[in-house]
Amino acid sequence: MELTLRPRRTSRLPSLLLVVLLSAACGSDEASKRPASESRSAIEERLEELSGAGVFVGGVAMTNAFVATHFDRKDPQSPGMRVLVTDGLPDGTAEWFEGNAEDLEFEFKSTSGRATIEGEVEPFETDGKITLADGTRHNFFTRPAGDGAGIFEIAVRADGALNGKALDGSTFKAAKDGPYVKGEVVSPGGERYPFRHNDLTQRLKYGVAGGQPGSYLAIVTRQATEIQGRGGDVRGGKPDRNVIALDMDQSESVTPGVYHGRVARTTDRLNFEIANDPSGTRVVRAYVSDSEPEPDGDVQWFVGPLPGADFDMPSKMGDARISGIIAEDGVSGEITLPDGTPRPFFAAPSGQGAGIYNVTVEDDRRHTGTSEQGAKFDLRYDNGTVMGTITDPEGREFPMLGADLATAYGYEDEYSKPGTYTAFVAPRGRYVFGRSGSVRAGQQGANIIGLDKKC
How far apart are the C-alpha atoms of 303 and 322, rounded to whole Å? Predict the structure, then answer.
């Protein structure tokens, strides 16, 4: 698939505003709670710290692959770059690149010889194009990460213990616990980011057991919200089929009846709601989307009665079907999308603002939304960055800071156009995916919301 980048932006935000937005988007979430007049100095210091450390994280358009870069900026005009691109799949992408960006532009071939990456280094963003081993060419973006994010060398022992260290000195320690992996990442400054993730190799039936004894090269996103990597000699261009694939952190703050998850081997995410309708009948609702543009983007809405723990129902769009079972640890089953391929899915019990929302985007691109459980968000939009707050039904607030994917990936069309949408929100606003139109009636529109705080 060939994606066309917009012409590189030649006009930038005023420098101070750019500092405020980008450091908030990829730095300390707490900064967004302070008034701008009080937080600018702290934000500038934080951005300088993050950019100086040289750890950037982002993604590859239309794939599940992450990109992470560690910079060596001894020569500011020719920084050294170590780049890992991986999707955490046993037969997927695992490419290592290394070299110098001459005059802040770069073009590298991977050590495997199967992929190339090219782009431009900017103070607070690195983006460009990557050609993967299958010959497809995709846009990518990365931004300063911090909060324990980066490229980690991880060793897994026979007893299931995982220990690792990032190229910037962050540390990783975890242990297997059935279908979970529990641990923490500690940044060089001592900030601790605990997690209890689901092992996707088990939940999504990868066909290989994740975290087999051996060595891995992995990408950890900020605050350890997702971890994926490959075993073997990735640096030497010879990865093996062993993987680390961890996602859907199990928070203690859960909203009853709300689940958030993903579909195996696709970019689709999904949210479930289990609730009573006005007649008192228990119903299950599911919303599936990948936040990708037409004609290939997925959007499906399912709703049906739930007399027991099992369900099986067609989508309101009429070209997909989902079946599954609701258990204490989550919702699992199989979904068949319009391409006709059945795929496993899993959704974990979720809170921290997760849910399905009715959303309004105003003319100034302000996003406001409310879920059926009473969670709310209020986001300001500026030049491809969103900043604001998600409030769960109990009144707990979570800063939401992230990137508009249409801007980040350089899609030709805009996202988040003024209008009304049905969207789903992942815990803490890690993703906000939505569509315009009457989604619940199976009549989705073409306008998209696609927000991501991967960095």
Answer: 10
Are residues 41 and 76 located together in one domain of the fold? yes
273 and 362 in a common domain: yes
Does 2 map to a domain? no
Binning the chain into helix, strand and coil, the percentages to the nearest 5 are 10, 50, 40
Predicted TM-score (pTM) of this structure? 0.88
* Token pair for 288: 């599936």
Among 144, 179, 213, give the residue marking a domain's end. 144
Out of 33-37, 51-55, 332-336, the most confident range is: 332-336
Chosen domain end from 247, 266, 298: 247
pLDDT one-digit tens code per residue, 238-273: 999 999 999 999 877 899 999 999 999 999 999 999
- The average confidence (pLDDT) of the chain is 87
Q: How far is CA 295 from CA 43, 98, 240, 299, 446, in A?
A: 40, 36, 35, 11, 9
One domain, residues 236 and 307? no
Provide the percentage of residues in the chain whose pLDDT is more than 70: 88
Query: Does 407 score more than 50 pLDDT?
Result: yes
Least confident of 8-17, 96-105, 314-323: 8-17
Containing structural domain, residue 352: 258-452
132 and 157 belong to one structural domain:
no
To which residue do tokens 């995982």 refer?
162
pLDDT of residue 284: 96
Residue that wins the pLDDT comparison between 206 and 5? 206
CB 144 within 8 A of CB 50: yes
**Rounded to an integer, what distance in angstroms lies between the CA atom of residue 423 and that of residue 19?**
29
Residues 59-79: b if buried by 16+ CB within 10 A, e if exposed: bbbbbbbbbbbbbebeeeebb
- Report the distance separating Cα 198 and Cα 362, nearest Å: 37
Same domain? For 131 and 228 the reply is: no
How far is it, in rounded angstroms, from Cα 188 to Cα 177? 27
